[in-house]
Amino acid sequence: MTNIKWWQTAVFYQIYPRSFADGNGDGIGDFKGITEKLDYLSSLGMDALWLSPHFPSPNWDCGYDISDYCNVAPEYGTMQDFNHFLFEAHKRDMRIILDLVLNHTSDEHAWFKESKSSRDNPKADWYVWLDSHLPEGEGSGEAPRSGVRVPPNNWQSCFDGEAWTYVPERDQYYYHYFMKQQPDLNWHNPEVKQAMWDAGRFWLDLGVDGFRLDAIGTIYEDPHLTPHNVPMNLAELRRFSELAKTPKEIKLKEKYWHEMFKNQWGQAGVHELMKELRAILDEYDGDRVLVGEDDNIDFMGSGRDELHLVFNFPLMQTEGLTPDHIRKNQKERLSKLEALSAGQGWGCNTLGNHDSSRVYTRYGNKLHDTELARLHAALVLTLKGTPFLYNGEEIGMTDYMLTDISQVKDTMGSWYYHTIVTEMGVHPEEAMLRTAEMTRDKNRTPMQWSNNLNAGFSPAHVSTWLPVNPNYKNGINVLDQEKNPSSLLNYYKHLLHVRKSSVALQAGEYIPLHPSAKEYLTFLRQSGEQTVLVVLNFSEHALELDFTRAREIKRHNLRLLFSSAERRGGELPPQFKVAPFEVFIAKVAHA
Ligand code: NOJ
To answer: I need a surface site. Which of 122, 309, 353, 370 has the fewest CB within 10 A?
Structure first.
């Protein structure tokens, strides 16, 4: 495994700080709590942790609205707590990457407060400011005679209505792709760049191992401000999408989502920016890493000069993880990655994060959820590329549907609820059902550590920031699963151990086999030293499989490395039977 970097073989685990572990008993996760759980993470087999934002924030977007880039949110602790956490993680050979939000700040950031105070302050040009749009026939440069203020164009925020918010002090609008509390920075201004790069350096100097880069696709907007041509606003489009049933409506909804935002993301300039950031990282020792929250492989540049990794979101953006879908996805991704210079492309697979429905719920079928969860874990841990897991998936945490609007913390959800109730006359009960489905709170509930009240996340009777999913009482918690040898948690541990002990699973090529199998997925992972066969049976039937025609296997025997079914270790011929939903991993024993 020469020349392989740590971030290629590492398994990453995403921590959502607010919900991971409450060390001081106030109902909110914190660094004390996270630090106390490092032994758990290390025994699970995690090599690296990605922390969602831990910076001071008014929390309109749960930390993705940062009001100070060089500090720790008081509810999470102090800089000293952070440094202690970093030290303890490194001591256990775990790397730490932080979330760097480049596109926007909080409207409570000192930069924005200054910027909005007048048109001629030193930071006047740090955000995207524009005058009111003058209706046809009005003189330019003057306030519209009619006195009617009109936003610069019809762009929408993807979270809460119009993308422009008026500020009387400047008599101008500022632009926000996300909530109005998240004004977009003006990245054309070199001072903005400098300030943000300084913030990055602040954490790199402390020793963090890299960054996950938030929303990089939205950093620049169409300079011509071309309006969208969708005959709806955001709330209407969301509602239309919820009600879309026929194939025609579904197609139209997809077209509208694309059309509505196409001028607000993916614009020129961002690759140069990523190159600058990469150059900064490369000044540091220790192979620090940049992971883009984007699936566009173009963000990897030549393979050496932009980001190290981008997520394979197309893998998870599907209603059903079928063998066909996965094969097609791998073919497309891997061929693009291979086209990058001198083998510099490397994949990054994930099935869930803080923005998406939990793996267990989303890809379950209500009949075989347990088996499917095991199959999906094996998928993400055996495909070629760096796996990212989301906290709680290792114990099978599920989405938790809120039932009352007062519980909703994800502002995007409460905005939608109030808009459809007040502007569209949707009945509050129905609106709540829709909101519970769309809000990201459902997949951000506190981590379930034990069978004690509050799932051991916070002391009993403390009111936690989001309700705890009551299914912690039914074995969906760490402590109960640690004691149970056949639990999902122990299954993850075992699988992670198998991955770690296999060069081929960590770094080998991916060679698909049986390309038209509908019920199962099978492939080889092959490195110079080792060949491993993986079979994932997605069906509820036992299947007879025959690998005698596979060149790499032929008459070789297979030596079992892992099976989710009851199967004894030892040698197997290249024809064998797999159990329903079995995960089968074997070494191809070279003669
Ligand atoms: C992507 C983050 O993952 C999401 O949680 C956040 O709301 C937006 N970017 C805005 O920062």
So the answer is: 122
The total number of structural domains in the chain stands at 2
Residues 199 and 61 in one domain: yes
Taking each helix axis from N to C end, the angle separating 270-282 and 190-206, rounded to the nearest 10 degrees, works out to 30
Whether the CB of 199 sits within 6 Å of ligand 1: no
DSSP 152: S
Half-sphere exposure of 182 (CA within 13 A, CB side): 30
Residue 184 domain flag: no
Q: Ligand 1, residues 52, 214, 293: which to mutate, most atoms within 8 A of Cβ?
A: 214
Q: Distance of CA 188 to CAs 101, 114, 180, 192, 431, Å?
A: 16, 18, 21, 8, 40
Q: Whole domain around residue 53: which residue ranges?
A: 6-103+191-223+265-399+463-490
Q: To 10 degrees, the CA torsion angle through 237, 322, 488, 437? A: 10
206-220 residues labelled b (16+ CB within 10 A) or e (exposed): ebbbbbbbbbbbbbb
Domain boundary among 423, 455, 490: 490
What confidence category does residue 567 fall into, taking pLDDT thresholds of 50, 70 and 90? Answer: confident
Query: Which atom of ligand 1 is nearest the CA belonging to 101?
Result: 11
> Which CATH number belongs to the domain containing residue 521 in this structure?
2.60.40.1180
Active-site residues, by number, are 214, 293
Residue range 481-497, pLDDT digits in tens:
999 999 999 999 999 99
Using a 6 Å cutoff on CB, does residue 441 contact ligand 1? no
Cβ of 159 below 6 Å from ligand 1: no
Closest residue to atom 3 of ligand 1, CA basis: 355
User: What ligand 1 atom has the least distance to the C-alpha of 353?
Assistant: 3
pLDDT of residue 144: 52
- The whole-model pTM stands at 0.96
Residue 44 lies in a domain: yes
Residue 208 placed within a domain: yes
Q: Are residues 333 and 479 in the same domain?
A: yes
DSSP annotation of 59: -
In a domain, 242, yes or no: no
CATH code at position 50: 3.20.20.80
Question: In three state form, how does the secondary structure of 436-455 look?
Answer: HHHCHHHHCCCCCCCCCHHH
Lowest mean per-residue pLDDT among 31-35, 197-201, 399-403, 528-532: 528-532
Residue 354 and residue 16: Cα distance in Å, rounded? 7
Token pair 């939903």 is at which residue? 581
If asked whether residues 512 and 393 sit together in one domain, one would say no
Tokens 């900064």 sit on residue? 280
Question: Which letter does DSSP use for residue 49 in this model?
Answer: E
Sheet holding 12-15, edge to edge: 309-310, 289-292, 210-214, 95-101, 48-51, 12-15, 386-390, 348-350
Same domain, 377 and 471: yes
